[in-house]
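Incident log entry.

Two folding requests arrived from the same account within the same minute. Monitoring flagged them as a possible duplicate submission, but the sequences differ. Recording both here for audit purposes.

Request one:
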Amino acid sequence: MKFVLKWLLNGVIAVTLLMYYSNASFIGAASTATILTIVAYMLGDRIILRFTNNFIATVSDIILAYLVLWVAASTMNWTISPGELLIVSLITGIAEFFIHRYVFHAKLSVQQA
């Protein structure tokens, strides 16, 4: 369920902003958002968040989002500037912060039960 929430939220943010800021197609933006979600979930949520805190996991997700989006933009020849990539990454990071809070809250609720 947490992965689906993350995928939907990241998808809405990334697809919308990538299509707004660049010449990205819906399929290209959706594919990139899906790849970003999978990598961020495996690396950010399952490893970094587990061993650190929300702040560090959020910063790592912002950096990861920037790198994944930059590679995708370069590969697919999107017309998006580094500043626009940063905006998409920061907005994605803000969403990740709240997803992490949800994950922590759900984990604490299960442990206390």
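Request two (distinct sequence, not a duplicate):
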Amino acid sequence: MDVADYDTVIELMRATPGVSLRDADSRESTARYLARNPGLSFVAQSGSDVIGCIMCGHDGRRGYLQHLLVHPDHRRKGVGNALVERTLTALDVLGIHKSHIDVYKTNASAAAFWRRIGWALRTDIDRYSVIRGGGHNA
């Protein structure tokens, strides 16, 4: 994925139930994220149409997957699995072998997907967040 895919990916995000768009999903923020994490984010295409996306970054120790999206017409065909595998393989090359993803508690289809491909729901930690700068939708 590169910033040229931005408009198509944002449209896919808007069309995907359970995904929320934030100010951090701006073109500028996405370009910065992709530049900071080269070779870790991917799009899936059918012909010239983008039908899926995954974004990924890392902190040097752990991978953090973001925005796994597959167009509803292309689900249950291996697209999501392929995107996840491609990203995890890219992290393996960097020596990063443990990764995380956040899923909204209300996104049952995403939770089912992650369980189905062998990811474990963590119950031993809580995630805390803070928003600085006054933006409520950061």
